[in-house]
Amino acid sequence: MNDYSNKLVTIERQISEQQDMFPEATGEFSRLLRDLTLALRIIARDVRRAGLNDILGYTQTTNIHGESVKKLDEFANDIIFRAMDHGGHLCVMASEESDGLITIPNEYKKGRYVLAFDPLDGSSNIDVNITIGTIFSVYRRLEPNEITDGNAADLLQPGFKQVCAGYALYGSSTQLVYTTGHGVDVFTFDPTIGEFLLSHSQVRIPKRGKIYSVNEGNYHSWAPELQHVNYLKLPSSDGQRPYSSRYIGTAIADIHRTLFYGGIFMYPSDTKSPNGKLRLIYEVNPLAAIIEEAGGRASNGIGSVLELQPESIHQRVPVFMGSEDDVNDLEMFLRGEHPAQKDGSV
Ligand code: FDP
């Protein structure tokens, strides 16, 4: 692996260096990532100016999930489409904000890759200036030599088949976190030079953390095994355990903190939402790829979410992601096998 300790590395440079590692690479994938980072730069710029641009607030429409669509969501959706439709790398796209597949216009070449994205995650936080972000996920199309439009099967691939996954976080700085299966790197945007610079190379998540992150207001409608949360809050006889609670309500922001500090992020199923809330293709799989590539685990309560065969593009799944030991404990609780359940200490 390269030693980045004293190098200044832009995202463009890293993408082209990674391409050089594969002599058979055509450059198509590198160009795809460059186009995507252009879209992320534009969205980051407009998120920063949102209050000034009068684009905060709801449009008059609802998205396909019946949620009110905010102007900034629409804008981000449109920018990604416009940056990605004509490069010749993609055969089809899908967005959390759009119903059905997004086809590549007839006049443009169809490529070997498939893009799924959530243009603006954390929409309920947009109007109050709290961290939001964009999530993306890239797959190879199933028939690599095909030159026609991609189809639903190209998008309904299990998460372990992602060739690239990541997110851009519009927080106190803009950061781009991504993996192509060679570790997880974080780039921080320097607005004065308009570049993403490598700031954290090969990030590893702690094996155990001290933070749990969940919308605990739903506690009354969870399965009883989620007493796991009480376990984290109650001191054990040796004075261990009490975890801190942190919940931003933007999945990417909660996952980003979990990536660095460890612990567990959860969006379980409950009686209102039997499949949880988060979408497998747009949110869960890309975030799971980052967490697992950094040495953590992403589970649906039984096993890795990356193994799940998606059935529909807007499918939701329960999810528990974070430090390996914390996710293992949670799974043990769900199976009723945790020692604390047996000795009655929760
Ligand atoms: P939002 O609805 O604000 O877009 O799936 C979207 C999401 O945010 C996630 O980013 C976030 O983790 C979750 O929903 C928050 O849901 P709750 O408000 O139910 O906690």
Low-confidence stretches: none
Helix content: 25-40%
- How many beta-strand segments? 15
Strand numbers in spatial order across the main sheet: 4-3-5-6-7-8-9-10
Q: What structural class do you assign from the helix and strand content?
A: alpha+beta
Backbone CA Rg: 20 Å
What portion of residues belong to β-strands?
15-25%
Shape: globular
Bound molecules: 2,6-di-O-phosphono-beta-D-fructofuranose
Intertermini distance: 45 Å
Average residue pLDDT:
92
The oligomeric state is single chain
List the helices and strands in order: HHHEEHEEEEHEEEEEHEHEHEEHH
Q: How can the largest sheet be summarized?
A: 8 strands, mixed
Number of helical stretches of at least 4 residues: 10
Report what the structure shows.
This protein is α+β, with helices and mostly antiparallel strands and 346 residues long. It is 29% helix and 22% strand. It contains 10 helices and 15 strands. It has helices at residues 11-20, 28-48, 50-53, 71-84, 152-155, 228-233, 251-261, 280-293, 324-334, 339-342; strands at 58-62, 68-70, 90-95, 102-103, 113-121, 132-140, 164-170, 174-179, 184-190, 195-200, 211-213, 244-245, 264-267, 297-299, 319-322. The chain has an 8-stranded mixed sheet, sandwiched between helices. Strands 12-11-13-15-14 form a 5-stranded mixed sheet, with helices on both faces. A two-stranded antiparallel sheet has the order 1-2. Helix 1 (11-20) runs antiparallel to helix 2 (28-48) and helix 7 runs parallel beside helix 8. The chain is globular and about 65 Å long. Bound molecules: 2,6-di-O-phosphono-beta-D-fructofuranose (FDP). Residues 121-125, 215, 249-251, 277-278, 283 line the site of 2,6-di-O-phosphono-beta-D-fructofuranose (FDP). Residues 121-125, 215, 249-251, 277-278, 283 line the site of 2,6-di-O-phosphono-beta-D-fructofuranose.
